[in-house]
Amino acid sequence: MSTDVMIHADNLTKMFGSVVALDRVSFDVRKGEVVGFLGPNGAGKSTTMRILTCFIAPTSGTARIHGHDVFEQPLEARQKLGYLPQRAPLYAEMTVWSYLQFAARMRGLDDNEFKSRLRKVVDVCGLAQVLGKDIRTLSHGYRQRVGLGQALIHDPPILILDEPTSDLDPNEKAEVISYIREIGKERTVLLSTHNLSEVEAACARAIIVSKGRVVADGTLDDIRAKSGRVRYVVSVHEQVAEGDHKPPKAGEVQSALQGLQGVSTVREIPSDDRAHSFEVIIGGESDIRAEIFRLVVGKGWTLLELHRDAQTLGDVFRDLTQGDARLARGLRSKDAEQEEEEDEGDEDSDDEDDDEDSDDATNEKKDGRP
Ligand SMILES: Nc1ncnc2c1ncn2[C@@H]1O[C@H](COP(=O)(O)OP(=O)(O)OP(=O)(O)O)[C@@H](O)[C@H]1O
Ligand SMILES: [Mg+2]
After folding, report:
1. Distance (Å, rounded) from C-alpha 101 to C-alpha 94?
2. Measured between alpha carbons, how far is 310 from 285 in angstroms, rounded to an integer?
């Protein structure tokens, strides 16, 4: 393993009774990376993070933090980690200051080290106004900031943050994300969130998990290209500019486009009455803009519009995880629904509760304390 691998997950499998929460999850996060960890409810994000932070043991597989095995050398691994669990474990009756001091002492900092770290943490987490307040009086957003503060107090090189922006208002979310971007300049961060725009704002890379498996891992551009479908919009003028070419008919343009290599479907789309416009879908990631241009020019037609739509991260996320999300809501897949409709003889009302593990997805988040 290369020495700049800060987080290493190797074939992590976790069973909770008969529920497979993780199924051979493997990935590496390298020094200086800020990686978004995405997946629908119940996909296994928190479970992965809890294994990486030494709170629960995997059923099989191994994990290393900064080169330390999380179960053979848990103290060394924890020393390198700051962890914000999904439900930040705060002591409501403590003031922010005394809680952070407590967290610092737990981390082995002496009082002088604490004071100098506190200044930095208060500054970056925006805690100056609330240092003397009891945690129970704080808004959720401020509690989240205190949670981040405890994760940072010992200046760890690796941060594992489980939905740090959930339940924050839009301003607070933006602040926390800009802050994570800032701290990510010097640290390695694994960040779980349901908000794809946050990933686009803070991360260069993402890992998507679904039903306990890694279904995508790469730069955001790689992931956007992963849907395996690219859409082009092509508009051709219905008149020709000059020469002895005949004005093109819609069907002629359509079949010419259909003849290009890699094209799977061509569909006419509405346009103004000067143009024939088509949506062209290709299977695969190749770029056929040049071929479209040459085709149109070769025919003597006039190209009015040509653009290639990259898939958004949201499109790809939905493609990769939709079945999982429907299952988590206790819904059936579209195919199953269709089969059900086609099944005329069946008069029994269908029991929607047959995905017995689906309820689990929203229950029992027993995050540990730092
Ligand atoms: N302590 C537990 N006991 C039993 N099942 C559990 C436990 N913790 C998690 N699970 C199950 O493991 C699966 C993965 O859960 P996990 O909390 O890791 O998902 P998640 O991706 O973090 O979801 P969310 O986005 O809702 O936080 C779910 O089916 C969940 O019900
Ligand atoms: Mg979770």
Report:
1. 10
2. 10
Class of domain 228-309: alpha beta
CA distance 71 to 28: 18
**Token code pair at residue 223:** 């992931």
Percent of the chain at pLDDT above 70? 85
Sequence ranges of the domains in the chain: 5-225, 228-309
Give the orientation angle of helix 170-183 with respect to helix 140-152, to 10 degrees. 10
With beta carbons less than 8 A apart as the criterion, state whether 164 and 180 touch.
Answer: yes
What is the structure's pLDDT at 273? Answer: 76
pTM: 0.74
Q: Can you spell out the DSSP letters for 155-223?
A: --SEEEEESTTTT--HHHHHHHHHHHHHHTTTSEEEEE-S-HHHHHHH-SEEEEEETTEEEEEEEHHHH
- Residue 45 contacts residue 208 (beta carbons within 8 Å): no
Mutate to test the pocket of ligand 1, among 25, 37, 38, 41 (most ligand atoms within 8 A of CB): 41
Number of residues in the chain = 370
Q: Is the CB of 46 under 6 A from ligand 1?
A: yes
**How many A from CA of 85 to the centre of ligand 2?**
9
DSSP 257-276: HHTSTTEEEEEEE---TTEE
pLDDT digits (tens, 9 = 90+) for 61-115: 999 999 999 999 999 999 999 999 988 889 999 999 999 999 999 999 999 999 9
User: From ligand 1's centre to the CA of 127, what distance in Å?
Assistant: 31
Query: pLDDT digits over 305-333, tens only?
Result: 999 876 778 888 888 887 655 555 554 44
* Model confidence band, residue 244 (pLDDT cutoffs 50, 70, 90): confident
CATH of 5-225, picked from 3.40.50.300, 3.30.9.10, 1.10.238.10, 3.30.70.1150, is 3.40.50.300
